[in-house]
Amino acid sequence: VSYDSKNVGEVVRNNAGGKTLILDGFAYYEKDVTRTTMRWGCTQNIRQKCSGTLTTNVMGTDIVSTNVHSHEPDHEYMERLKIHGLNKPTPTDASPCKQLKNTEQNHDILPIKV
User: Sign of the C-alpha dihedral, residues 36, 69, 46, 108?
Assistant: First the structure.
């Protein structure tokens, strides 16, 4: 698996507190956490039937292992995720303005070492 030279991942949190790791054109959901590692699964596991995974150390700064994706990276979609976050309007907060609020507080930058 090759990664672009930036090697920086971003974790976007949704309203429910879930995490999505965005790295090199792919998005991963937090799948499993152990004492020493975090396993992330491709968010396209159903739509694209992708079994791509990424395992990092528990801090999320070092890649331990990867499993290849069955689809191409989508850098444009990842940029939209970063801008809009994963915030979905709740039934009581369906205003498009609130839905697209600045989600800076929902981002963590992770320097990923490969």
Answer: positive
Give the pLDDT confidence of 69-111 residue by residue, as tens digits: 999 999 998 888 777 665 444 444 433 333 333 344 455 555 5
111 CB-near residues (< 8 Å, 6+ apart): 7, 8, 61
Cβ–Cβ < 8 Å for 60, 7 = no
Q: Which residue type occupies 101?
A: K
Are 31 and 41 a contacting pair, CB within 8 Å?
yes
% of the chain surpassing 90 pLDDT: 37
By DSSP bridging, strand 107-111 and strand 19-23 are unpaired
This prediction has a pTM of 0.69
